[in-house]
């Protein structure tokens, strides 16, 4: 019993000891911040950001950096703050040069002394450990996304500084924690009523320029810049006394490519990201307004003076950090920089050029102007949604935005603490300055921050992911290069590429359209190959279908064979010298061979002039009803059909047809499909007319006239004589299908009295109802109406609807001039 009791007492002792240590237990709050204490352009290893002489150094640069990191870590080991950048495995990156800061990474990391001090004070006051990582804007977004997706070795932050353009992206993905305790303490909403961002610092871009170049006396004429528009800015540069250096737009691959270009779009009246109803925002860089200022700068960045070119605007492929090093030496006249640049410029001026003169001398040289449409931005502090220390994280964010000492440092460093009274403008100059120029500068900053003057980007979720992506920046850098080359058309093409690429990512209509093009570019060749394969696999079937069509035409010709024989029986003179048996055989052979030959000719199945089809029908009707062989005779004569018929009607073989008159009117140039089928149908109808007019029962008081005319889409065939029987008219006019027509005709054949159907009339109805718009007949006279339109929608679209002037013919043996007008 004694051993178990001792074990129980030991466990109770350990538990009590653990419970006693819990209040003082170490926590690690991870913070990601953008460096707010800049290193001066000349800051070197072992030096400071001030003007004192650099101590002598020995050894190589990497070696000196390693030594300073070890000293730094030894000092930080005495505090509750750890700088992640100086720990393994990340400290090896501190030897590399930062493309954004243009100095070794260690230089700007070690400069964050005031920030580390403020974090130390918070850690001690809240009994919490803090791990801070300093990161530059060019890497912050990509590293945040990669960290949250588990694609790198960095710890996810509990508190993070984000750009104002990133907030929509993070909020859209529910990555930010909102303040829910009812006391918002300045936390702001991001579109969903969630207090998830805390304004940290504001940012405004201004034009900084040299009134007098360094080295010039304070009594020399001052350069003044008129910044009402980019035209007046260029004019100011052009009129500068003695010329002087150019305005600089650095075009190194940084986010400033976008921040410098957007104000140019706004200055011309462009919107940059106009909202299109519910479809979202789309990037606009190519409209006349958006392109006007960039195009103007492209065409006016270089002027010719006294026969020599002079550059007014320079576009070096360098970062702003590198360009400002040259600017503070007077190698550039002006630069577009964040407002906090003023403190750094003044410190550098005091180091280089003050030379014992009063501090106010700076304002004799330094000029500041508000751009035509300045960029207004800033950053927030936010708490990551998955933090384990939400209370401490919110407290730290509020501390960094309200602590007097820390926000004082931000103001002195040239930033604008968003929650400090007055926005920290009074601290911009780094020391008390009550001069009139200093007060004017504060007014200009406030003016640029005014939403009515400065412009900000819309908080669209895709902004940070797309517009600030490397892919867009690389394309935008090409546009800047085209500006430097002075090529407006190349600039238009380059910004068009930026616009097209961006809108494919953020604007749904463009995305869907491009997706369709991408799919079609792949699908079209595949579809073409499939169609080719189908054709190759089915070419025999296609050929067979063509043969079927020809066979149908041959069937129509075969039906004419019977009507031809019928005509021979009724007009024996058609085959003079032959008996009934021989005449029948002769007619059948001639009609069959002629129909078979013409049905096989490819030209008879292609679209043809309607007038030619009508004339062939008339000649064929004469051939089958009056005199066998004249169609073949006409083909061999090479005469126009109206010339041949006019002369033939005077031939003795015409017999009773010598008294015949034909009137014909049709539109010039009108074409028709399936000419062979239409020809066969018209032959049947014309045979019917000839049979009536030339028949022995035709009244001598009536003219022997056949009238053919085309009005709109209807071809009319009329001749005098008795009407068709009622039953036959009903069969033609009211049948809705071939089956119904067959039933009506069968009824007429078995129960005479409603009219006797002939071979030709039945065949004509069948052809016209299937291949064209059908056949109609008048009840009170032999007048037929043929619909010329194809029954398919494709045929209706294809047919030419407009007349091109009519052609009229009048053929008759008694007429001295049979042709009223010619083709």
Structure description:
By secondary structure, the protein is of the alpha/beta class. The protein is 47% helix and 13% strand. The chain has 28 helices and 22 strands. The strands form 4 sheets. Strands 1, 2, 3, 4, 5, 6, 7, 10, 11, 12, 13 and 14 form a 12-stranded mixed sheet that branches. The protein has a 6-stranded mixed sheet with strand order 20-21-19-18-16-22. It has a two-stranded antiparallel sheet with strand order 8-9. The longest helix has 63 residues. The chain is elongated. It starts with a helix and ends in an 11-residue tail after the last strand.
What would the average pLDDT be, to the nearest integer? 80
- Morphology: elongated
Sheet with most strands: 12 strands, mixed
Strand residue content: 5-15%
Low-confidence stretches: 6-26, 40-50, 52-59, 551-576, 793-799, 813-823
Alpha-carbon distance between the termini? 132 Å
Alpha carbon gyration radius:
48 Å
The class by helix and strand makeup works out as: alpha/beta
**How many helices in DSSP terms?**
28
Give the proportion of residues in helices: 40-55%
Number of strands: 22
How would you summarize what this structure contains?
The chain is α/β, with parallel strands linked by helices and about 800 residues long. The protein is about 45% helix and about 15% strand.
């Amino acid at each position: 019993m004694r051993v178990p009791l001792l074990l129980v007492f030991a466990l109770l002792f350990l538990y009590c000891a653990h419970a006693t240590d819990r209040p003082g237990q170490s926590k690690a709050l991870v913070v990601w911040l953008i460096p707010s204490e800049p290193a001066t352009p000349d800051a070197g290893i072992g030096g400071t950001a001030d003007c004192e002489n650099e101590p002598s150094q020995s050894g190589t640069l990497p070696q000196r950096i390693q030594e300073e990191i070890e000293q730094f870590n030894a000092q930080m080991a005495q505090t509750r703050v750890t700088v992640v950048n100086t720990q393994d495995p990340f400290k090896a990156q501190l030897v590399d040069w930062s493309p954004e800061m243009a100095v070794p990474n260690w230089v700007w990391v070690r400069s964050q002394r005031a920030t580390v001090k403020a974090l130390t004070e918070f850690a001690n006051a809240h009994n919490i450990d803090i791990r801070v990582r300093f990161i530059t804007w060019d890497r912050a977004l990509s590293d945040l996304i990669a960290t949250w997706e588990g694609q790198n070795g960095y710890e996810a932050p509990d508190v993070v500084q984000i750009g104002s353009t990133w907030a929509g992206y993070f909020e859209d993905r529910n990555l930010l924690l909102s303040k829910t305790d009812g006391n918002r303490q300045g936390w702001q909403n991001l579109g969903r009523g969630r207090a998830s961002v805390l304004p940290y610092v504001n940012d405004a871009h201004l034009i900084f320029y040299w009134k007098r170049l360094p080295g010039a006396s304070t009594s020399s004429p001052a350069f003044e810049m008129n910044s009402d528009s980019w035209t007046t800015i260029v004019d100011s540069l052009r009129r500068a006394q003695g010329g002087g250096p150019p305005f600089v737009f650095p075009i190194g691959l940084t986010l400033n490519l976008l921040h410098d270009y957007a104000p140019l779009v706004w200055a011309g009246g462009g919107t940059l990201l106009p909202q299109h109803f519910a479809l979202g925002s789309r990037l606009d860089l190519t409209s006349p307004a958006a392109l006007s200022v960039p195009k103007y700068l492209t065409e006016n960045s270089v002027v010719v003076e006294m026969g020599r070119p002079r550059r007014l605007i320079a576009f070096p492929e360098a970062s702003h950090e590198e360009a400002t090093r040259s600017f503070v030496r007077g190698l550039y006249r002006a630069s577009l920089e964040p407002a906090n640049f003023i403190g750094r410029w003044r410190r550098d001026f005091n180091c280089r050029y003050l030379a014992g003169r009063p501090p106010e001398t700076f304002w004799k040289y330094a000029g500041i102007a508000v751009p035509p449409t300045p960029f207004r931005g800033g950053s927030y502090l936010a708490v990551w949604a998955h933090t384990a220390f939400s209370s401490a994280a919110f407290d730290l964010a509020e501390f960094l935005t309200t602590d007097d000492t820390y926000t004082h440092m931000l103001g002195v460093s040239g930033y604008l603490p968003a929650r400090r009274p007055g926005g920290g403008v009074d601290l911009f100059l780094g020391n008390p300055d009550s001069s009139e120029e200093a007060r004017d500068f504060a007014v200009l900053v406030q003016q640029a921050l005014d939403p009515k003057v400065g412009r900000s980007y819309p908080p669209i979720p895709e902004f940070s992911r797309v517009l600030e992506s490397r892919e867009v920046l690389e394309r935008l850098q090409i546009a800047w290069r085209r500006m430097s080359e002075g090529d407006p058309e190349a600039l238009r093409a380059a910004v068009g590429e930026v616009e097209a690429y961006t809108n494919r990512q953020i604007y749904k209509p463009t995305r869907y359209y491009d997706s369709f093009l991408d799919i079609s570019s792949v699908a079209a060749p595949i579809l073409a190959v499939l169609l080719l394969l189908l054709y190759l696999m089915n070419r025999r079937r296609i050929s067979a279908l063509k043969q079927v069509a020809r066979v149908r035409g041959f069937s129509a010709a075969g039906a004419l064979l019977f009507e031809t024989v019928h005509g021979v029986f009724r007009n024996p003179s058609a085959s003079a010298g032959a008996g009934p048996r021989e005449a029948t055989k002769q007619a059948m052979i001639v009609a069959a061979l002629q129909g078979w030959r013409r049905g096989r000719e490819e030209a008879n199945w292609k679209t043809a002039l309607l007038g030619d089809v009508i004339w062939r029908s008339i000649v064929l009707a004469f051939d089958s009803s009056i005199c066998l062989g004249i169609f073949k005779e006409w083909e061999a004569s090479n005469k126009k059909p109206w010339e041949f018929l006019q002369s033939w009607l005077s031939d003795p073989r015409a017999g009773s047809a010598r008294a015949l008159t034909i009137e014909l009117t049709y539109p010039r140039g009108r074409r028709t499909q399936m000419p062979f089928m239409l020809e066969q149908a018209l032959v049947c109808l014309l045979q019917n007319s000839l049979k009536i007019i030339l028949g022995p029962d035709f009244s001598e008081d009536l003219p022997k006239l056949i009238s053919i005319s085309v009005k709109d889409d209807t071809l009319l065939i009329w001749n005098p004589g008795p009407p068709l029987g009622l039953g036959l008219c009903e069969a033609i006019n009211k049948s809705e299908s071939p089956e119904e027509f067959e039933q009506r005709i069968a009824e007429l054949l078995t129960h005479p009295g409603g009219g006797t159907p002939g071979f030709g009339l039945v065949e004509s109805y069948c052809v016209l109802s299937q291949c064209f718009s059908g056949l109609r007949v008048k009840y009170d006279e032999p007048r037929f109406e043929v619909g010329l339109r194809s029954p398919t929608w494709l045929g209706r679209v294809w047919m030419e609807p407009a007349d091109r002037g009519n052609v009229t013919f009048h053929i008759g043996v008694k007429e001295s001039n049979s042709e009223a007008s010619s083709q």
